[in-house]
Amino acid sequence: MDVKHKIKYCSQCHTITLHDPCIICGDAARDHHSLCIVADPQDQMAIEKTGEFNGVYHILGGLISPLDGLTPDILKIKELIKRVFTGKYQEIFFAINPTVEGEATILYITNQLKGQDVLMTRIAYGLPIGADLDYADELTIAKAYEGRVKI
Question: pLDDT per residue over 111-142, tens digit each?
């Protein structure tokens, strides 16, 4: 019963929390100039587990999917646009699954943010560690090739 009354959404990033702002948004040691956009709190937790990202987040509450009734006005995209226009972000990092819905969401948001002087990046495509090329599909291999890095 307490959970129902104590759990709320962070007013800044829209994650599930007991405190507003959440622990991440309220942490002065984090890089508040780097913003990671994710679909849901589970994706935020996956990024946090890596220990690599030290910025703040914005949870959209899903991905654009008109067939499922998820349109931009239902998601937290307006709040994101307002946040970016009023914030001083140096990088916006999209950690969104490379699905049709994910690509549509990224395209919609980047079009809304045109003209902003901010670096926009996305999570890399490619093969997972330990994967075998023999079992990868052509699109995955092609995306891995496009995202190759110098060694």
Answer: 999 989 999 999 988 888 888 888 888 988 88
Residue 22, CA distances (Å) to 11, 80, 88, 104, 127 in order: 8, 16, 20, 28, 33
Residue 151, in any domain of the structure:
no
Number of domains observed in the structure of the chain? 1
The pairing of beta strand 56-59 with beta strand 34-38 = parallel
- Phi and psi torsions of 112, nearest 5°: -70, -25
Tell me what the mean pLDDT of segment 82-98 comes to.
Answer: 94
Reported pTM = 0.89
Q: What residues make up the domain containing 59?
A: 2-146
- 82 inside domain: yes
pLDDT at 2 over 80: no
Would 122 be classed as within a structural domain?
yes
Q: Where are the alpha helices (DSSP H) in 77-137?
A: 77-86, 100-112
18: left (phi over 0), alpha (psi -120 to 50) or beta: alpha
- The secondary structure of the chain in percent helix, strand, coil, rounded to multiples of 5, reads 35, 15, 50
Q: What share of the chain in percent tops pLDDT 90? A: 73
Pairing of strands 56-59, 119-122: unpaired
